[in-house]
Design a protein that fits this description.
Layout: H1 3-17, H2 25-38, H3 41-54, H4 60-72, H5 76-84, H6 91-104, H7 109-125, H8 131-144, H9 147-160, H10 166-178, H11 182-191, H12 197-209, H13 213-225, H14 232-241, H15 249-263, H16 272-285, H17 289-301, H18 308-321, H19 324-337, H20 343-355, H21 359-368, H22 374-386, H23 390-402, H24 409-419, H25 425-439, H26 445-457, H27 461-469, H28 476-488, H29 492-504, H30 511-524, H31 527-540, H32 546-558, H33 562-571, H34 577-589, H35 593-606, H36 612-624, H37 628-640, H38 647-659, H39 663-672, H40 678-690, H41 694-706, H42 713-726, H43 729-743, H44 749-761, H45 765-774, H46 781-794, H47 797-810, H48 815-827, H49 831-843, E1 852-857, E2 860-865, H50 874-890, H51 906-914, H52 917-928, E3 935-939, H53 945-958, E4 962-965, E5 970-974, E6 977-978
Parallel strand pairs: 3-4
Antiparallel strand pairs: 1-2, 1-3, 4-5, 5-6
Helix pairs in contact: 1-3, 2-3, 2-4, 4-5, 4-6, 5-6, 6-7, 6-8, 7-8, 8-9, 8-10, 9-10, 10-11, 10-12, 11-12, 12-13, 12-14, 13-15, 14-15, 16-17, 16-18, 17-18, 18-19, 18-20, 19-20, 20-21, 20-22, 21-22, 22-23, 22-24, 23-24, 24-25, 24-26, 25-26, 26-27, 26-28, 27-28, 28-29, 28-30, 29-30, ...
Length: 984
């Protein structure tokens, strides 16, 4: 007979035998107790029906037991129905329904709120409560994590005098300790008159779970001294729960606990191996990896037999030392003992080699294992994914499926990490996504985060958002992944919106959240918001975290606030190579190249080694300030540190030598680089163009094509620029039309600028103007400025007026436009028009950009302006200029006074030409630089015709090579001849 029928048959028999009198509540109670003890809801419901039929439904005792039965059998809705129809509810009835809600709160948070509502209703209805009322309410607080409610109940318990009831205070201690409020828990605990072992263990567990190791050990000591005996749970909780301890005090406490456990025989294994394994584990928990290894050596020295547990601990310690040779030795011991055949040992070997970035050895162990479990596969899949072997990781995942093993969330997370780095990883990820949906692993936060990451990197933010929005609970890792996804998808505003939601909801951010938020501010150049997040970093105590500081540093750099960037950088106790390189790069990006080079010297003094990116950035800094000697020193460091093979470094060096005026070394270096990518060819091509070596540039362009390198838009900028500097207009047209015809590259404004410049330099000003008018887009200000300069050289007043008008409409406050127009008028002796142009500048308060030149002598820059008297050696420099001008006049130099655009006497014009900034810089170079060395001068504007002519004579009489870089190109002066052929 079925269980329910059997019990109801007994009841039916009773009714038959005694039909004259109703069944007593005690008889119904015995059946309800059976239903409760066996969790038999069907029996309980049938009994409830018989109670109603028998007319006993109004019995308070039975009603309260019905509530308890439905609660224990998991039917809260039935319990609530019974409660709602009960007319005269006593305190036991209320306590029973509260107990039902407390029991069901795990599955539905809404039940917790309803339970609290019932408690408030109880206080309003009856007014009186007891400890049996507070117990279920506190359980509601605990299971729902409602700390605010627990604090309210605490206050209510004080008010009604129940706070020191052992039942209530114990429950409050439990709530506070599990919610991380150990201070509140300790205050209650210390005030309690009665405490048992369970309560002591409850407090101990709270300290351990919060990671308060020192407090946990001290509390254990108090526990021991209290007269109560810590039990096996106490010892295991402490020794297994504490991950690391302080070197001195913590070890002493751990030894005391271990001694206590041994003394009371809390372990049932007294073998030598077990005792040694416990000692090894102590060292490992304390983070003393070498202590583990010393202990293992002693164990071997005493001929103590070790087991698989011994090797698990030792291999974990070896992984922490990052000593591969030591790892191989322990591996040999495992093989010799035959313990490598144990799956757990094999997995530990895979883990050890993986952590040491020796995935090849990890794979060998994996291949030789006779038996593999899911941990083996997961370890290998993750190892390959983290070592850049993404395809191997995916292949292992496929093999795992062929072995009929069921992947878990660790498997899926590992293979998704690999997919996020594969070109075709998105398709595989979608299949894994489907699998995760079918198996329910999509609910796992690690899997969800990995999917968000892979979709974000694949540019599929809609799919990432769908996963994110379907998450029921708050998981910070998912939010972090979503924020980062928005940033790499160029939607940093949404990343900051998410960060704002986290902050407003009261959830705590971690280091990754804050670093990602600062990155978003940097991408959007939002300095004020970045500063606010920096303040949150400091408030949260993450200002000493290297990862967060690196993000904050990057934000300030991108926002151009180098002062605060410097403050953040200096606050780093031990910046790594990434932080140093970020600071150096920031200096370069914000025009502080000198500071970048000095930061590099500090980096080397700190002992941090630069990498290829550091060198590429520093070489760029040398290029920007034309610091050839600094560049050469960096080149030497590149060779010394074996970074020359990096393509970015090689390209940067070629570019640096070209921009610093040493095109010969640039070309020599270019020829010595075997692996030439398009960027390297372009750097050399542009360098040759800047130096006016058109023939070499054309030959290089042909050589590039013969090597199978397809030219890109930068290549054509280089070749067109070379044609421009050499006056090769027909070749410029040929290459310009070849772009779209032969290579499918539509000319952009830079290419049109080069063509217009070539025509303007060749004197074809009007033709250049027609090219501008025929362009498919509006001419840039720089293009019109270049054409206006050509009009000045050619003396084309009418075209110059027209071009100047266009330039005034584009940039009404550009001083170059007014100065060039004034010079055009002055060259044509239209002095009134020239003066009017100057007056217009004065009326608009526009200042002319001053011309200046500088020279680098012994790694120090010396800057000069026209008629400069500020240099400490000004008298010697001026004497040298006088001597220099006298000597070259004897050689046939005649001042070209037409370059003095002032209406003054010829003698005054000649004298004003003597002290142009480039002549002063060359004079200082002749004084300071050793004989026969090349003098290199940089000028911010185009060199005037008189200075150009004078320098040709100076190079001849001084027997020096003089390299002058002006705003247009490089000029190499040797033996009275310039490389530009007087065409610039």
């Amino acid at each position: 007979m079925p269980y329910v029928q059997r019990h109801l048959h007994k009841i039916g028999s009773s009714i038959t035998l005694s039909s004259a009198s109703p069944l007593s509540s005690s008889q119904w109670f015995s059946v309800l107790r059976t239903a409760i003890s066996t969790h038999n809801l069907l029996l309980g419901k049938c009994t409830h029906a018989r109670i109603i039929v028998s007319g006993s439904a109004g019995d308070h005792f039975l009603t309260n037991n019905l509530l308890t039965m439905y609660s224990k059998c998991g039917s809260l809705s039935s319990a609530r129905q019974v409660f709602d129809v009960t007319p005269d509810r006593d305190l036991v009835t209320w306590n029973s329904i509260l107990g039902a809600y407390a029991a069901s709160v795990d599955s539905n948070d809404g039940n917790a709120q309803e339970g609290f509502h019932l408690f408030r209703h109880l206080r309003a209805s009856l007014g009186s409560t007891n400890k049996m009322t507070l117990a279920p309410v506190l359980k509601l607080c605990l299971n729902s994590g409602s700390l605010w409610a627990a604090e309210g109940i605490h206050g209510y318990a004080i008010k009604i005098g129940l706070v020191w009831d052992v039942f209530v205070s114990g429950a409050l201690v439990n709530v506070y300790s599990k919610c991380g409020r150990m201070r509140n828990a300790r205050l209650l605990f210390d005030g309690m008159r009665e405490r048992d072992v369970v309560l002591w263990n409850m407090m101990l567990k709270g300290y351990v779970q919060l990671g308060h190791e020192k407090e946990a050990f001290q509390f254990f000591s108090e526990f021991h001294q209290s007269g109560f005996r810590p039990d096996e749970f106490s010892v295991h909780l402490l020794l297994n729960g504490v991950s690391e301890v302080n070197e001195v005090e913590g070890k002493w406490y751990a030894d005391q606990v271990q001694a206590y456990a041994t003394k009371l025989s809390l372990s049932d294994d007294n073998s030598d191996a077990f005792c040694w394994n416990k000692k090894l584990s102590e060292y490992l928990r304390a983070g003393d990896n070498w202590g583990v290894l010393d202990c293992f050596v002693n164990m071997n020295g005493l001929n103590v037999d070790y087991d698989d547990v011994t090797l698990l601990v030792v291999l974990s310690a070896v992984a922490g030392t990052d000593d591969i040779e030591l790892g191989k030795q322990v591996h040999g011991i495992a093989v010799k003992s035959g313990l490598d055949l144990e799956v757990s040992v094999g997995n530990s070997l895979i883990n050890m080699y993986s952590k040491m970035d020796c995935v090849y050895f990890a794979r060998e162990v994996f291949n030789e294992m006779k038996q593999l479990d899911l941990i083996s596969w997961n370890s290998m899949i993750s190892s390959c994914a983290e070592s850049g072997l993404e395809e191997e990781s995916v292949s292992l995942y496929v093999d795992l499926l062929h072995e009929d093993l069921k992947p878990d969330h660790f498997t899926l997370t590992g293979v998704l990490r690999a997919c996020s780095l594969l070109i075709d990883g998105l398709n595989i990820s979608r299949q894994i996504h489907v699998h995760a949906l079918k198996t329910g692993h999509i609910a796992d936060r690690f899997v969800a985060t990995a999917l968000i990451d892979v979709y974000s990197k694949g540019g599929k933010m809609e799919e990432a958002e769908l996963i994110f929005q379907n998450r029921d609970d708050f998981d910070l890792a998912c939010w972090n992944a979503m924020m980062f996804g928005y940033i790499i998808s160029d939607d940093s505003n949404k990343a900051l919106d998410l960060f704002s939601l986290i902050h407003r909801s009261g959830e705590k951010s971690d280091q990754i959240t804050l670093a990602t938020a600062t990155k978003a501010c940097g991408c959007l150049v939002l300095l004020d918001q970045g500063k606010q997040i920096h303040a949150l970093v400091i408030k949260a105590g993450f200002d000493s975290d290297l990862y967060v500081n690196s993000g904050t540093l990057d934000m300030y750099i991108k926002c151009g606030d180098m002062a605060n960037a410097g403050v953040v950088f200096k606050s780093m106790s031990a910046p790594d190579d990434v932080a140093w390189t970020s600071m150096i790069s920031g200096c370069v990006e914000n025009g502080k190249e000198d500071q970048a080079l000095s930061t590099y010297h500090q980096m080397r003094q700190s002992g941090v080694m630069p990498d290829e990116y550091t060198f590429a950035t520093l070489i760029k800094a040398s290029s920007c300030i034309i610091a050839l000697e600094q560049g050469r020193q960096l080149h030497a460091n590149v060779i010394k540190l074996d970074c020359f093979s990096d393509p970015f470094v090689g390209t940067s060096l070629v570019d640096m030598y070209a921009k610093c005026g040493n095109i010969e070394d640039a070309y020599r270096l270019f020829k010595n680089i075997s692996a030439r990518k398009i960027a390297l060819w372009n750097a050399m091509l542009v360098g040759l163009a800047q130096h006016g070596n058109a023939e070499e540039a054309i030959n290089l362009f042909k050589s590039m094509k013969s090597h199978g390198i397809e030219p890109d838009r930068v290549s054509f900028v280089g070749i067109l620029s070379a044609c421009s500097h050499a006056g090769l207009t027909s070749e410029a047209y040929k290459y310009f039309h070849s772009m779209s015809k032969d290579y499918g590259i539509e000319p952009e404004i830079e290419h049109y600028s080069c063509l217009v410049d070539a025509l303007g330099r060749a004197g074809l000003v009007q033709e250049a103007d027609k090219v501008i008018e025929s362009m498919p887009f509006k001419a840039s200000a720089s293009m019109n400025r270049a054409l206006l300069g050509a009009c000045r050289i050619q003396g084309d007043v009418e075209t110059g007026k027209r071009v100047a008008a266009r330039l005034f409409s584009q940039e009404p406050f550009d001083p170059a436009a007014y100065v060039l127009l004034s010079n055009i008028y002055a060259s044509a002796n239209l002095w009134d028009d020239a003066n009017n142009a100057r007056k217009m500048m004065k009326m608009k308060n526009i200042k002319k950009d001053p011309g200046f030149s500088w020279i680098d002598v012994k790694n120090k820059l010396h800057l000069f302006v026209v008629d400069d008297q500020s240099h400490p050696q000004a008298d010697i420099i001026y004497d040298k200029v006088e001597e220099m001008m006298k000597t070259i006049r004897e050689e046939g130099y005649v001042p070209e006074t037409e370059f003095v655009l002032l209406d003054v006497e010829d003698e005054e014009k000649e004298r004003s030409l003597y002290y142009h900034s480039e002549k002063l810089a060359i004079a200082y170079g002749l004084i300071s630089a050793p004989p026969s060395t090349t003098i290199r001068v940089i000028k911010n504007l185009r060199v005037c015709g008189d200075c150009h002519n004078a320098i040709k004579f100076i190079s001849k009489v001084s027997d020096r090579e003089i390299v002058l870089r002006d705003a247009n190109r490089f000029h190499h002066f040797r033996d009275g001849v310039c490389s530009c052929g007087d065409y610039w």
